[in-house]
Design goal:
heterodimer, A: 116 residues, mainly beta, four-stranded antiparallel sheet, 0% helix, 52% strand, globular, B: 113 residues, seven-stranded mixed sheet, 51% strand
Chain lengths: 116, 113
Amino acid sequence: AQKITQTQPGMFVQEKEAVTLDCTYDTSDPSYGLFWYKQPSSGEMIFLIYQGSYDQQNATEGRYSLNFQKARKSANLVISASQLGDSAMYFCAMTQDSGSARQLTFGSGTQLTVLP
Amino acid sequence: DTAVSQTPKYLVTQMGNDKSIKCEQNLGHDTMYWYKQDSKKFLKIMFSYNNKELIINETVPNRFSPKSPDKAHLNLHINSLELGDSAVYFCASSQDFSNQPQHFGDGTRLSIL
């Protein structure tokens, strides 16, 4: 069974600073995908970034980067130059590519607040 | 040019009623999903369809019945609504049934009185 752990229920960061949101995962499957989603207070789920288990380089998308450490089974999200609009709930998620268990499993989320 | 759209956005109804939530995607994706987000923000898969075929059916009461008339639509019908059904329901789609990003609709907030 796959499992995603986000140990930070809430985080605060000063505007323009960088912040790292932690995510660890547990799977015995060699092929899997790791995702980060943002959920602002308006409620929609916004896809941010994806990392495949076989990808050699860490994924980056604009101000978002995924610090993928396979041996430690961690997939932390780094947001550089935080903006007030980054205040939201952030979810780490994983999907596996084996059998029929290809659903997206979510962590419990981290509420990020960017301070002016 | 909405990618994944679900209607209605809000649904307020009484216990015991039957209601439906519609979902459509215009991304040309093969796979669609329904998720439930509870009051603690925890998201859990309910169903997944790939090319109109049911692939995942998690432990969900059989009062919940998904219907996929074509691969661009996945509707969710709920019979005999209960208080515990109050949640936000998200529809999502992905290119295929593999490690591809899933794109979500804006959610339907269901409130049972």
